[in-house]
Amino acid sequence: MAEPVGVTAAAAATETSEPTSVFLRACRGLPVERTPVWLLRQAGRYQPEYRALRERHSMLELVRTPELAAQVTLQPIESFGFDAAIVFSDILPPLVGMGLDLDFVTGDGPRIGNAISSPRDVDLLGTPPAEETMSATLEAIGIVRRELGARDVPVIGFAGAPFTLASYAIEGGTSKDFTKTKAFMLSEPAAWKRLLGKLVTVQADYLLAQARAGASALQVFDSWAGRALGREDYLRYVAPANRELFSKIAAAGVPVVNFSLGVSAYLEDAAACGGDVVGLDWQLPLDEAWARVGLERPVQGNLDPASLLAPWRELRFRIDAVLDRAAGRPGHVFNVGHGLVPQTPTDNVRRLVEHVHERTFTQQGEVPVGPTAR
Ligand code: CP3
């Protein structure tokens, strides 16, 4: 295996034995002095600093300039004191190295100019190494690690899961009904398998490279399989690829979060694909979802991000409801169950982090209580 870049072998070894950061400890199910908190899309348009940078640079410029990507990654850490930093990028840039033309169109989301429509298109996709195609993000991880210095704030690397990426590659953008993706999957099962195989190769390589570059945890986002497919199709057309991806990246030796959105109908099956920590969306009460994946398995979640649009009194009640359902058990990382929206008030983010820290710090050792009465 290649030497880790931007992190000493000694630091990497410490991480795999007994981590000190609350986030990595919770990811291993170890006791913590307070519940760690970070939020999906913690770097983004709800922040004035991010909007200011976006006036001068496109989304892809930010992603492809290591210093800027590092700056955006660190902004929410400085402003709110999150317990983990997620490197600023997106799940889609790795598709560019495979031969797909990606653009982020303001107000319209991601667009792929040359979407896949035939088995031949699949065969033309390349699988170049991440060191060649995603070097800016790998470099950004190193810069963030250096900037954080002695602070015990781990960096999370991430990638999209095969189905979610295939849906963008085939639809050419975000879809409501996944018609083209499902038509391709059902009409061209052999090409579908080759497509997912190539995506597994590229994403596994990319995730392993992020860990070598200094990421202390990895998260896989499967945003759309649960929206698009029933259980039987998930098990047949998606789960084998996800299992392969999780089994390949286990070699990184860092905790892996499996975040599959909208899979309440088959949460156990999605969780069984792999990963150390199960990322829970906001649809089920935390305790119910946790019991379904097994209480011995660490979980991350699961406040509805729309809660941050509510007045503080209501937001606090909803944060407390999630914490009550976690009941002070080890192995809980507080997060939202999907990304923050651009309308999120920064004050609510600040108060959320403070409240989770304060409330769980005093909660340690106390007898778990039931849901808070209103
Ligand atoms: O969480 C973080 O702070 C790290 C950065 C991050 C982004 N996207 C930044 C981003 C992460 C982890 C993602 C993941 C991502 N991207 C997912 C999986 C999670 C999920 O939300 O389900 C998906 C499906 C995407 C695809 C994507 N990227 C869409 C659909 C859009 C357009 C919609 C939107 O919110 O603008 C993006 C753009 C995007 N990715 C932005 C950011 C900050 C907005 C870019 C901008 O206009 O400045």
Total beta-strand segments? 9
Largest sheet: 7 strands, parallel
Radius of gyration: 20 Å
Uncertain runs are: 1-15
Tell me the span between the first and last alpha carbons: 54 Å
**How many helices?**
17
Q: Whole-number average pLDDT? A: 94
Approximate helicity band: 40-55%
Based on secondary structure, the structural category is alpha/beta
Tell me the overall shape: globular
Secondary-structure element order, N to C: HHHHHEEEHHHEHHHEHHEHEHEHEH
Listed once per kind, the bound small molecules are: coproporphyrinogen III
Strand content: 5-15%
Strand order of the largest sheet: 1-4-5-6-7-8-9
How is this structure best summarized?
With 374 residues, this protein is α/β, with parallel strands linked by helices. 49% of the residues lie in helices and 11% in strands. It has 17 helices and nine strands.
Can you walk through the features of this model?
Helix 5 packs parallel to helix 8. The N terminus is likely disordered. Helices cover 49% and strands 11% of the residues. It is of the alpha/beta class. The strands form two sheets. The chain has a seven-stranded parallel beta sheet with strand order 1-4-5-6-7-8-9. It has a two-stranded antiparallel sheet with strand order 2-3. It is globular and about 60 Å long. Coproporphyrinogen III binds next to strand 3.
Tag the structure with descriptive keywords.
374 residues, seven-stranded parallel sheet, two-stranded antiparallel ribbon, 17 helices, 9 strands, 49% helix, disordered N terminus, binds coproporphyrinogen III
